[in-house]
């Protein structure tokens, strides 16, 4: 049971990281950045690229209306697990482009990694107001509900929405795996009383 929970968590955390980076790069497979299974040591974050950060900051200073550079800075800090700085840059990107659903969702993910699950869910609500069928956001709602709030029924509902919206996409596949793991690990989830 513990091993299954570790695998479940690894797949989902890997998807969070992979999907967070997808705003500026080609989408990565859900399990490409999977977290270690239970009992394995965690890997350290990649080294921070100070030169890239300096170049992006210079571009951001020269171009105050460039949201994409700010998102790239947020991603750079996020990848280095410097979530407070990532949060600052995602917020700045949203100041420039308040309708950027990917930046909004990335901000929510950064809040979650900063141990602020309620703030993450509030940010995801903002993302869903911009795009009610944003599969990446809905998948992350399920993750935060499952792991940040221990709301397995809420997680299940969010993941079912993802499967309905994007059944063949990477988000739908990740949601389907999460649902399968959830029902395997927690027999009562997904069943109606008396069923």
Tell me what the structure shows.
This protein is globular. It starts with a helix and ends in a 10-residue tail after the last helix. The chain has a domain of 85 residues: Serine Threonine Protein Phosphatase 5, Tetratricopeptide repeat. About 10% of the residues have low confidence. Helix content is 67%, strand content 0%. It has 195 residues and is mainly alpha-helical. It has nine helices and no strands. Helix 6 runs antiparallel to helix 7.
CATH homologous superfamily of the domain at 48-132 - what is it?
Answer: Tetratricopeptide repeat domain
Q: End-to-end span in angstroms?
A: 23 Å
Structural class call reads mainly alpha
| Architecture (CATH level 2) name of the domain at 48-132 | Alpha Horseshoe
Supply Rg. 17 Å
- Give the CA-based shape: globular
CATH top level label of the domain at 48-132? Mainly Alpha
Tally the helices: 9
DSSP strand content: under 5%
> Can you give the helix content as a percent range?
55-70%
Unreliable residue stretches:
21-40
- What summary fits the major beta sheet? none
Q: What is the CATH topology classification name of the domain at 48-132?
A: Serine Threonine Protein Phosphatase 5, Tetratricopeptide repeat
- The residue-averaged pLDDT reads 83
Task: Please count the beta strands (DSSP E, at least 2 residues each).
Answer: 0
Order of helices and strands: HHHHHHHHH
């Amino acid at each position: 049971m513990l091993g299954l929970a570790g695998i479940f968590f690894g797949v989902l955390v890997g998807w969070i990281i992979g999907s967070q980076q997808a705003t500026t790069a080609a989408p990565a497979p859900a399990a490409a950045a999977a977290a270690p299974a239970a009992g394995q040591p965690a890997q350290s974050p990649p080294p921070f690229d100070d030169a890239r950060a300096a170049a992006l900051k210079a571009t951001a200073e020269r171009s105050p209306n460039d949201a994409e550079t700010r998102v790239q800075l947020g991603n750079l800090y996020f990848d280095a697990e410097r979530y407070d700085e990532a949060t600052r840059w995602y917020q700045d990107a949203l100041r420039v482009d308040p309708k950027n659903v990917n930046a909004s969702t990335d901000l929510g993910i950064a809040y979650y990694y900063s141990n602020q699950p309620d703030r993450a869910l509030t940010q995801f609500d903002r993302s869903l107001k911009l795009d009610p069928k944003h599969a990446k956001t809905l998948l992350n709602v399920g993750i935060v509900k499952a792991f940040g709030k221990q709301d397995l029924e809420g997680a299940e509902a969010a993941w079912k929405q993802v499967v309905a919206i994007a059944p063949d996409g990477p988000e739908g596949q990740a949601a389907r795996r999460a649902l399968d793991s959830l029902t395997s690990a927690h027999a009562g989830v997904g069943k109606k009383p008396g069923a």
